[in-house]
Amino acid sequence: MSQHQVVLIPGDGIGPEVADAVKEILTAAKAPIAWIERKAGLAAIDEGEDVLPDDTLDAIRKHGVALKGPCTTPVGGGFTSVNVKLRKTLDLYAAVRPVRNLAGVASRYENVDLVVVRENTEGLYSGVENEITPGVVTSLKVATEHACRRIARYAFEYAKARGRRKVTVFHKANIMKLTDGLFLRCAREVHEEYPSIELETLIIDAGCMKLVQDPSRFDILLMENLYGDVVSDLCAGLVGGLGVVPGANMGDHMAVFEAVHGSAPDIAGKNLANPLALLMSAVMMLNHLAVDRGDAGCHDVADRVKYAYDRALADGQKTRDVGGSLGTREFCRAVIERLG
Ligand code: NAI
């Protein structure tokens, strides 16, 4: 197995703790990875750097793959989201978030196995906000045919490659007739090229109700940026919370893997964070490397890591957010002990 250079952005809040745990587990699993560590967010500001330094962006451009911890975004003011900026600057247009039950993690639902595919570059996250006059502000929702079409194609290609049967679009085209109307029309047009995959369209409010009634009826969920952000966390809640949902931000030439959760300032620095979501993101990354770099050995490492965390959970070795009593470091050790 050759070594793959991968950019590691620990982030801030719980980011460094969970990133350390993941690094330790991948080293113990002999993952063929050489980490190129870079900063972003508060960690970069603390060093007197820009919130998203050029050398972080350049490293991702050069190496093509990154694993990223969460970065805090100030609420109601301050700098714009590092996470959104990163995705837009590098054109990582598809957020892919698999949501599944894990054996050993109690949840209200069984048989959940869905994937949220979120458009990552536009919508209300275009960041175009204006004060028209004091007391009157606007936020511009942007939809382009190019972005709507490519995210629809991504969802159908993903479904086809993984033998999935249905893509459900959540939208609000009854109210936002132009923007969500375009998103919906592009999904319908792209679907014509994938007749073996079912297309379902639901107005998002009714879709959310159906999600909490019976999430097992869904397969792939396709939606624009803001809806995808909100629904991702909702879906995490269906299977045990934010500690167990991984993600990937995919572009045509680069991929940045990160958990759905944020920097969790309420538990940062307390050895309480669940590193599993970032570890599962790292497993997605290894599988991506296997395909992208033609290195089947990465699949084997991914399988070993997955086996080890499945075993740990089945043995009741869990962090508090999923009903256990272990700290971040103790869970990390439990996984390492089970690497075959
Ligand atoms: P959050 O996801 O950080 O936390 C929500 C709740 O889930 C908290 O109670 C937290 O303790 C818990 N939680 C999250 N991850 C956990 C883990 N791995 N283990 C155990 N418990 C976990 O969301 P919140 O509080 O809304 O946002 C905090 C900050 O994170 C904000 O500045 C936000 O902008 C940022 N954020 C960053 C993201 C990213 O870097 N991609 C994504 C989401 C939020």
Instruction: Assign the CATH superfamily of the largest domain.
Output: Isopropylmalate Dehydrogenase
What number is the mean pLDDT? 97
Radius of gyration, CA atoms, in whole angstroms: 20 Å
N- to C-terminal separation?
18 Å
Describe the main β-sheet briefly: 10 strands, mixed
What shape does the CA trace take? globular
**Number of structural units classed as domains:** 2
Would you give the CATH topology of the largest domain? Isopropylmalate Dehydrogenase
Q: Which class do the helix and strand fractions yield?
A: alpha/beta
Name every ligand kind in the structure.
Answer: 1,4-dihydronicotinamide adenine dinucleotide
Helix content: 40-55%
Which CATH class of the largest domain applies here? Answer: Alpha Beta
Unreliable stretches: none
Task: Give the number of helices.
Answer: 11
* Biggest sheet: strand arrangement: 2-1-3-12-11-4-5-10-8-9
Strand content: 15-25%
Order of helices and strands: EHEHHEHEEEEHEHEHEHEEHHH
Q: Can you count the beta strands?
A: 12
CATH structural architecture of the largest domain: 3-Layer(aba) Sandwich
